[in-house]
Amino acid sequence: MRLDPPCEVSRPQVTFDVEEIEPILQAPPMDLVPWPGATIELKDGRTLYIREARLEEAPMMMDYVMKVMQSPHDFYDVVGARVYAELAGWYRKRLKDPYVLVGILDGEWAGFANGRLMSKEINISLHTMALMRGLRIGAIMYYAKAYYGFELLGNEEWWATYESYNGWKRWGVGMAQPSYPWPEYQHELGGARVYYVTKKYWDVSIKDYVRQMVGADLDFDVPDEIVNANETMRLPDEVMV
Asked: Is 35-159+217-229 a CATH 3.40.50.10140 domain?
């Protein structure tokens, strides 16, 4: 769009350095309490270590998620594309207040959970994935990020939506999550319905439901040997979705 200036100007061109533009395009971050790291015992007796993903791990994770996109069943093409965009947005600082948790089993990436904060009160749940089957890692990662939001960040509401039938059945119906009126309220993942959990509902019901699903609880007293053994995260040899 071009318009003639309404007065005489001494400099007909104004230039910007990208360093001046970046503060406008990059959302100013909130001061988030970091996830401290936790372990949980799996039903086969092994220990899953859950820590924050590191920014330098994003390209490796994106390479894996690109393969997930190639699986058209159960909406994994949609999920893969969206998770890739979320990781890229995190990596390129184009996502407001994101958090990314990874579950690591004997050094291998086994679980993923991410979201972002809309505000201090509202936590937007984005995606949860299990990269290994049969160990309830998906339920564990969902519990970990909900625990993070309500117990550590002090959020008042948790907003989620569901792309797959299994996710809707397990979390939407299984947790008896109410939904806000649609289309007045829309989740950012495609404008779908917003299912929500309040802090009070979490305290009196949902926390115990997810614990029952998981069969154990998080332990935040992580031994040094667990931290050291999972310091470097490697990708699974194959995509199991």
From this structure: no
Q: Which residues contact 2 (CB under 8 A, 6 or more apart)?
A: none
Distance CA 5, CA 86 (A): 41
Q: Is the bond preceding residue 183 a cis peptide, omega within 30 degrees?
A: yes
Distance in angstroms (rounded) separating the CA atoms of residues 218 and 140: 9
Which residue stretches of the chain are H helix?
Answer: 18-25, 58-68, 76-91, 137-147, 165-167, 199-201, 207-214, 224-229
Centre a 10 Å sphere on the Cβ of residue 53 and count the other Cβ atoms it contains: 23
pLDDT tens column, 53-65: 999 999 999 999 9
- The residue extents of the domains of the chain are 35-159+217-229
- The model's pTM is 0.93
Please tell me whether the peptide bond between 36 and the residue prior to it is cis, using omega within 30 degrees of 0: no
Q: In what order do the strands lie in the sheet with 47-52?
A: 38-41, 47-52, 98-105, 108-117, 122-130, 157-160, 195-198
Number of H helices, E strands in the chain: 8, 7
pLDDT in tens, 183-237: 999 999 999 999 999 999 999 988 888 788 888 899 999 999 999 999 999 999 8
Q: How many CA atoms lie within 13 A of 196 on its CB side?
A: 20
Contacts of 184 (CB under 8 A, 6+ apart): none
DSSP 193: -
